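Q: Joint fold for the lines below.
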Amino acid sequence: MIDEPAVRAALAEVPDPEIPVVSVIDLGMVERVDVRDAGIRVELLPTFIGCPAIDMIRSTVAERLAAFGVPVDVDVSMRVPWTSDRITATGREKLRRSGFAPPSADTSVACPYCGSTNVALDNLFGPTQCRSLLYCRACRQPFEQFKTI
Amino acid sequence: MSATGEVLLPATRNALSLLLLAMADDELVIGFSDSEWTGIAPILEEDVAISSLAQDELGHAQALYRLLAELLVDGRDADAIAYDRPPEGYYHARLLDHHRGDWADTIVRRYLYDTADSVRLEALANSSWEPLAELVAKIRREERYHLMHAGAWFERLASTPGEPRARLLDALERMSADAGTVLTELPTELALEMAGIVDAPSRELEARWRTSLAPVFARLDLPRLPPTRDVATARTSHSDAFRELHAGFTSVRRIDPEATW
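A: Joint structure:
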């Protein structure tokens, strides 16, 4: 049977193409899942307005859900703004384990490698729109942080 | 999505179209200007930063052109509106019409634009037209980073004696009389205010913006911003610098209108 948990479980297998350790579920990009007799409808929120990965994410989601054998409609909307606090606890842990500091509500950032908060912001902007560049003074390791927005 | 503009009175719809066009063209033009630094910015960190900023701005422009396309329903999509106009058909503020110039020019342009744009966005935050209020909420979260970046560089150049400050002063002299063009009154804006789309007329937004900059300029001992020159042509008279930029950013589209890139 197709129900919302089944669809969400499938979406948990769709990686973010820029940071593949996390899925669209981990990132909190799935705003709505609507399962009806007529098919499945999913509403995705882009992390950044100009995110060049969003078309790829949309088509990957559509491909994954095609396995259910019913019509699939994937919408990208900004009806509610995606914010970085939508990233789940699991998502944050996955980010940390792969060397990304998760977004933080306050200004303190812990190095994802050694946990030290003796870190310096190198660049607010990074290799993609959603990332900043930092440097850990304790373990001398550069790392990235998911931008807090 | 198709119902975007159906509830609007024709006068409101026209005024809203002009506002969206002004905002989208501003973001497109500053985005493409900034993208000219990719690969040649003064330091690697700034190469990354300005390229990322430019990408944000082009994303904002695209989202605004999409809203405009839904509103106009004239057969043009966002790309057609963005790229299929001659240079004279663009409606960006004259502040963005200068050559890219040196790094100080870029920082001054960004600082003046970002501060003015943030006042404009704030005035739209509670817009009665939901699609714009939603997009603005999202844009403001990203623009916060742009303001931090431009503000930090502006202060750094202004407070470093010698060449950095001299170049900043030069850039200010070239651009400051055009700074207010971002918030110059649009011919149809009364309809926007009456419909609750913006919360104040442009002259009030411009006053808010000037008030917010005054203490910064005083602290950094910079000359006061002059009044805006040639207000009547703030968005309609474009320079050779813009015609060159336009020739560049429309080139792929002119070679192959169907290209995806």
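Q: Anything notable?
A: The beta strands of chain A are 30-36, 39-44, 72-76, 100-101, 119-123, 131-136, 141-146. The radius of gyration of chain A is 17 Å.
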